[in-house]
Design goal:
By secondary structure, the protein is α/β, with parallel strands linked by helices. It has helices at residues 4-15, 26-29, 43-48, 50-59, 80-89, 105-115, 132-151, 173-180, 192-197, 202-208, 238-243, 245-248, 264-277, and strands at 36-38, 64-68, 93-99, 119-122, 155-159, 167-168, 171-172, 186-191, 215-218, 220-222, 227-229, 252-255. The protein contains 13 helices and 12 strands. Strand 6 (167-168) and strand 7 (171-172) form a beta hairpin. The termini are far apart.
Length: 278
Protein backbone atom coordinates (compact mmCIF):
# COMPACT_ATOMS: atom_id res chain seq x y z
CA UNK A 1 0.00 0.00 0.00
CA UNK A 2 1.19 3.54 -0.63
CA UNK A 3 2.97 4.95 2.44
CA UNK A 4 1.81 8.25 3.87
CA UNK A 5 5.10 9.91 2.88
CA UNK A 6 4.86 8.66 -0.72
CA UNK A 7 1.21 9.58 -0.92
CA UNK A 8 1.85 13.14 0.25
CA UNK A 9 4.62 13.47 -2.31
CA UNK A 10 2.33 12.16 -5.07
CA UNK A 11 -0.50 14.43 -3.94
CA UNK A 12 1.74 17.46 -4.14
CA UNK A 13 2.72 16.51 -7.68
CA UNK A 14 -0.88 15.97 -8.68
CA UNK A 15 -1.93 19.31 -7.22
CA UNK A 16 0.35 21.12 -9.69
CA UNK A 17 -0.65 19.05 -12.71
CA UNK A 18 -3.58 19.27 -15.11
CA UNK A 19 -5.16 16.14 -13.61
CA UNK A 20 -6.85 17.81 -10.68
CA UNK A 21 -10.56 17.30 -11.21
CA UNK A 22 -13.42 19.29 -9.72
CA UNK A 23 -15.71 17.50 -7.30
CA UNK A 24 -19.16 17.02 -8.79
CA UNK A 25 -22.32 16.63 -6.76
CA UNK A 26 -24.10 14.05 -8.89
CA UNK A 27 -27.21 14.11 -6.73
CA UNK A 28 -27.85 17.72 -7.66
CA UNK A 29 -26.73 17.47 -11.29
CA UNK A 30 -28.56 14.23 -12.11
CA UNK A 31 -32.11 13.95 -10.87
CA UNK A 32 -32.35 10.16 -10.94
CA UNK A 33 -29.21 8.26 -9.97
CA UNK A 34 -25.81 8.92 -8.48
CA UNK A 35 -23.31 7.91 -11.14
CA UNK A 36 -20.44 5.48 -10.57
CA UNK A 37 -17.33 4.52 -12.49
CA UNK A 38 -15.92 1.23 -13.79
CA UNK A 39 -12.32 1.04 -12.59
CA UNK A 40 -11.07 -0.57 -15.81
CA UNK A 41 -11.01 3.02 -17.03
CA UNK A 42 -8.00 3.58 -14.76
CA UNK A 43 -6.40 0.14 -15.07
CA UNK A 44 -2.81 1.28 -15.65
CA UNK A 45 -2.95 3.87 -12.89
CA UNK A 46 -4.34 1.29 -10.46
CA UNK A 47 -1.53 -1.08 -11.37
CA UNK A 48 1.08 1.54 -10.52
CA UNK A 49 -0.55 3.08 -7.44
CA UNK A 50 -3.85 1.56 -6.39
CA UNK A 51 -4.52 3.65 -3.29
CA UNK A 52 -3.46 6.95 -4.82
CA UNK A 53 -5.61 6.29 -7.88
CA UNK A 54 -8.66 5.42 -5.79
CA UNK A 55 -8.19 8.66 -3.88
CA UNK A 56 -8.06 10.65 -7.12
CA UNK A 57 -11.24 8.91 -8.27
CA UNK A 58 -12.97 9.88 -5.02
CA UNK A 59 -11.83 13.47 -5.55
CA UNK A 60 -13.67 13.51 -8.87
CA UNK A 61 -16.85 13.13 -6.85
CA UNK A 62 -17.56 9.46 -7.49
CA UNK A 63 -19.31 7.62 -4.67
CA UNK A 64 -19.88 4.30 -6.44
CA UNK A 65 -17.26 2.08 -8.04
CA UNK A 66 -17.17 -1.18 -9.95
CA UNK A 67 -13.95 -3.19 -9.96
CA UNK A 68 -12.47 -5.15 -12.85
CA UNK A 69 -10.35 -8.27 -12.61
CA UNK A 70 -6.66 -7.33 -12.89
CA UNK A 71 -3.20 -8.82 -12.78
CA UNK A 72 -3.25 -8.02 -9.06
CA UNK A 73 -6.52 -9.83 -8.46
CA UNK A 74 -10.05 -8.57 -8.08
CA UNK A 75 -9.04 -5.83 -5.61
CA UNK A 76 -5.80 -4.45 -7.11
CA UNK A 77 -3.48 -6.09 -4.61
CA UNK A 78 -5.64 -5.36 -1.58
CA UNK A 79 -7.50 -7.99 0.37
CA UNK A 80 -11.31 -7.82 0.13
CA UNK A 81 -11.45 -6.38 3.68
CA UNK A 82 -8.77 -3.80 2.88
CA UNK A 83 -10.65 -2.76 -0.24
CA UNK A 84 -13.84 -2.34 1.74
CA UNK A 85 -12.10 -0.25 4.40
CA UNK A 86 -10.33 1.94 1.84
CA UNK A 87 -13.61 2.68 0.09
CA UNK A 88 -15.21 3.63 3.41
CA UNK A 89 -12.28 5.90 4.24
CA UNK A 90 -12.55 7.59 0.83
CA UNK A 91 -16.32 8.00 1.01
CA UNK A 92 -17.03 5.48 -1.74
CA UNK A 93 -19.08 2.31 -2.02
CA UNK A 94 -17.85 -0.81 -3.81
CA UNK A 95 -21.08 -1.83 -5.53
CA UNK A 96 -20.03 -4.35 -8.14
CA UNK A 97 -17.11 -6.27 -9.59
CA UNK A 98 -16.25 -7.89 -12.92
CA UNK A 99 -15.14 -11.51 -12.51
CA UNK A 100 -14.88 -14.78 -14.40
CA UNK A 101 -16.87 -17.95 -13.89
CA UNK A 102 -13.92 -20.29 -13.42
CA UNK A 103 -12.42 -22.85 -11.04
CA UNK A 104 -12.02 -20.14 -8.40
CA UNK A 105 -15.70 -19.19 -8.45
CA UNK A 106 -16.37 -20.24 -4.84
CA UNK A 107 -13.45 -18.14 -3.61
CA UNK A 108 -14.62 -15.23 -5.76
CA UNK A 109 -18.02 -15.31 -4.08
CA UNK A 110 -16.51 -15.56 -0.60
CA UNK A 111 -14.26 -12.58 -1.29
CA UNK A 112 -17.20 -10.56 -2.58
CA UNK A 113 -19.10 -11.17 0.65
CA UNK A 114 -16.11 -9.93 2.65
CA UNK A 115 -15.72 -6.86 0.44
CA UNK A 116 -19.31 -5.86 1.09
CA UNK A 117 -20.19 -5.51 -2.59
CA UNK A 118 -23.67 -6.17 -3.94
CA UNK A 119 -23.03 -7.58 -7.43
CA UNK A 120 -20.72 -10.06 -9.10
CA UNK A 121 -20.76 -9.50 -12.86
CA UNK A 122 -19.45 -12.13 -15.26
CA UNK A 123 -17.48 -10.11 -17.78
CA UNK A 124 -17.05 -12.69 -20.54
CA UNK A 125 -18.69 -15.81 -21.92
CA UNK A 126 -17.72 -18.89 -19.86
CA UNK A 127 -17.79 -21.07 -22.99
CA UNK A 128 -17.24 -20.36 -26.66
CA UNK A 129 -19.61 -20.94 -29.54
CA UNK A 130 -21.91 -18.47 -31.26
CA UNK A 131 -24.85 -20.86 -31.38
CA UNK A 132 -28.28 -20.98 -29.82
CA UNK A 133 -27.44 -24.24 -28.07
CA UNK A 134 -24.35 -22.79 -26.44
CA UNK A 135 -26.19 -19.68 -25.27
CA UNK A 136 -28.94 -21.84 -23.78
CA UNK A 137 -26.26 -23.84 -21.97
CA UNK A 138 -24.64 -20.62 -20.74
CA UNK A 139 -28.03 -19.42 -19.53
CA UNK A 140 -28.31 -22.55 -17.37
CA UNK A 141 -24.83 -21.88 -15.99
CA UNK A 142 -25.80 -18.29 -15.22
CA UNK A 143 -29.00 -19.36 -13.45
CA UNK A 144 -26.97 -21.72 -11.26
CA UNK A 145 -24.42 -19.01 -10.49
CA UNK A 146 -27.28 -16.68 -9.64
CA UNK A 147 -28.69 -19.21 -7.17
CA UNK A 148 -25.28 -19.63 -5.54
CA UNK A 149 -24.86 -15.88 -5.21
CA UNK A 150 -28.36 -15.40 -3.84
CA UNK A 151 -27.67 -17.86 -1.01
CA UNK A 152 -24.76 -15.65 0.05
CA UNK A 153 -26.67 -12.41 -0.21
CA UNK A 154 -25.04 -11.44 -3.51
CA UNK A 155 -26.48 -10.72 -6.94
CA UNK A 156 -25.09 -12.25 -10.12
CA UNK A 157 -25.08 -10.57 -13.49
CA UNK A 158 -23.64 -10.53 -17.00
CA UNK A 159 -21.96 -7.75 -18.98
CA UNK A 160 -22.35 -7.82 -22.76
CA UNK A 161 -19.94 -6.92 -25.52
CA UNK A 162 -20.69 -6.70 -29.24
CA UNK A 163 -20.62 -10.38 -30.18
CA UNK A 164 -23.71 -11.34 -28.17
CA UNK A 165 -25.81 -9.46 -30.72
CA UNK A 166 -24.79 -11.76 -33.55
CA UNK A 167 -27.51 -14.00 -34.96
CA UNK A 168 -27.81 -17.76 -35.25
CA UNK A 169 -30.68 -19.39 -37.12
CA UNK A 170 -32.50 -16.07 -37.29
CA UNK A 171 -32.30 -15.31 -33.55
CA UNK A 172 -30.20 -12.73 -31.74
CA UNK A 173 -28.01 -14.60 -29.27
CA UNK A 174 -28.33 -11.96 -26.55
CA UNK A 175 -32.10 -12.47 -26.66
CA UNK A 176 -31.51 -16.17 -26.06
CA UNK A 177 -29.73 -15.26 -22.82
CA UNK A 178 -32.53 -12.95 -21.76
CA UNK A 179 -35.25 -15.46 -22.52
CA UNK A 180 -33.52 -18.37 -20.77
CA UNK A 181 -32.27 -16.70 -17.60
CA UNK A 182 -34.32 -15.97 -14.50
CA UNK A 183 -34.66 -12.23 -13.93
CA UNK A 184 -34.33 -12.60 -10.15
CA UNK A 185 -31.12 -14.61 -10.52
CA UNK A 186 -29.33 -13.09 -13.53
CA UNK A 187 -29.13 -9.29 -13.55
CA UNK A 188 -28.05 -7.84 -16.88
CA UNK A 189 -25.48 -5.07 -17.01
CA UNK A 190 -26.10 -3.45 -20.38
CA UNK A 191 -23.06 -1.86 -21.98
CA UNK A 192 -24.79 0.82 -24.01
CA UNK A 193 -21.72 1.49 -26.13
CA UNK A 194 -21.35 -2.06 -27.36
CA UNK A 195 -25.07 -2.21 -28.09
CA UNK A 196 -24.91 0.73 -30.50
CA UNK A 197 -21.71 -0.56 -32.11
CA UNK A 198 -23.55 -3.81 -32.84
CA UNK A 199 -26.13 -1.83 -34.81
CA UNK A 200 -28.84 -2.04 -32.17
CA UNK A 201 -30.63 0.56 -30.06
CA UNK A 202 -30.59 0.16 -26.25
CA UNK A 203 -34.08 1.69 -26.12
CA UNK A 204 -35.42 -1.28 -28.07
CA UNK A 205 -34.07 -3.59 -25.38
CA UNK A 206 -35.41 -1.40 -22.57
CA UNK A 207 -38.88 -1.61 -24.10
CA UNK A 208 -38.71 -5.28 -25.07
CA UNK A 209 -37.34 -6.43 -21.70
CA UNK A 210 -38.45 -3.75 -19.19
CA UNK A 211 -36.76 -3.92 -15.84
CA UNK A 212 -34.07 -6.41 -16.92
CA UNK A 213 -31.11 -4.01 -16.80
CA UNK A 214 -30.37 -2.90 -13.23
CA UNK A 215 -26.83 -1.94 -14.23
CA UNK A 216 -25.50 0.08 -17.17
CA UNK A 217 -22.13 0.88 -18.59
CA UNK A 218 -22.49 4.41 -19.90
CA UNK A 219 -19.92 4.48 -22.70
CA UNK A 220 -19.75 6.51 -25.90
CA UNK A 221 -18.27 4.79 -28.95
CA UNK A 222 -16.44 5.87 -32.08
CA UNK A 223 -18.63 4.09 -34.61
CA UNK A 224 -15.89 3.90 -37.25
CA UNK A 225 -13.02 2.65 -35.12
CA UNK A 226 -15.33 0.72 -32.76
CA UNK A 227 -13.50 1.99 -29.69
CA UNK A 228 -14.70 4.05 -26.76
CA UNK A 229 -14.36 7.81 -26.82
CA UNK A 230 -15.24 10.85 -24.75
CA UNK A 231 -18.93 11.64 -24.28
CA UNK A 232 -20.48 13.49 -27.18
CA UNK A 233 -17.90 12.33 -29.70
CA UNK A 234 -19.49 8.98 -30.55
CA UNK A 235 -22.70 7.33 -31.62
CA UNK A 236 -24.56 7.01 -28.31
CA UNK A 237 -27.43 9.41 -27.67
CA UNK A 238 -26.59 9.89 -24.01
CA UNK A 239 -29.37 12.38 -23.31
CA UNK A 240 -31.94 9.95 -24.67
CA UNK A 241 -30.53 7.11 -22.58
CA UNK A 242 -30.75 9.17 -19.40
CA UNK A 243 -34.39 9.98 -20.12
CA UNK A 244 -35.23 6.27 -20.25
CA UNK A 245 -33.73 5.02 -17.01
CA UNK A 246 -37.02 3.98 -15.45
CA UNK A 247 -38.17 1.52 -18.10
CA UNK A 248 -34.79 -0.20 -18.13
CA UNK A 249 -34.91 -0.84 -14.40
CA UNK A 250 -31.46 0.65 -13.90
CA UNK A 251 -30.22 1.15 -10.34
CA UNK A 252 -26.50 1.66 -10.94
CA UNK A 253 -24.89 3.52 -13.85
CA UNK A 254 -21.12 3.16 -14.24
CA UNK A 255 -19.21 5.40 -16.61
CA UNK A 256 -16.53 3.47 -18.49
CA UNK A 257 -13.97 4.50 -21.08
CA UNK A 258 -11.41 2.03 -22.40
CA UNK A 259 -9.47 4.26 -24.82
CA UNK A 260 -8.58 7.93 -24.37
CA UNK A 261 -7.56 10.92 -26.43
CA UNK A 262 -4.94 11.83 -23.82
CA UNK A 263 -5.17 10.48 -20.26
CA UNK A 264 -8.00 8.67 -18.45
CA UNK A 265 -8.41 11.39 -15.83
CA UNK A 266 -8.56 14.10 -18.50
CA UNK A 267 -11.11 12.07 -20.47
CA UNK A 268 -13.18 11.52 -17.36
CA UNK A 269 -13.12 15.25 -16.64
CA UNK A 270 -14.46 15.83 -20.18
CA UNK A 271 -17.18 13.22 -19.62
CA UNK A 272 -18.31 14.78 -16.35
CA UNK A 273 -18.33 18.25 -17.87
CA UNK A 274 -20.44 16.91 -20.75
CA UNK A 275 -22.99 15.50 -18.29
CA UNK A 276 -23.03 18.71 -16.28
CA UNK A 277 -23.82 20.69 -19.42
CA UNK A 278 -26.34 18.22 -20.83
Amino acid sequence: MTTRRNFLRQSAAIATSTLVMPIYDFNSSKKDLELGVQLYTFRNELKNDAYGTLKQISELGFKKIETARSGNGHYYGFSPKEMKDICVDLGMKLVSGHVHLDKNWKKTMEEAVTSGQEYLICSTMPSTGQTIDNYKSVAETFNKAGEECKKLGLKFGYHNHEYEFEMNNGEVLYDILLKNTESDLVHMELDLGWVVVSGNDPLDYFNKYPGRFPLWHLKDMDMTKKISTEFGKGGLDIAQMMKNQKVSGVEHIFIEQEEYADHPFNSMKDNLTYLENM
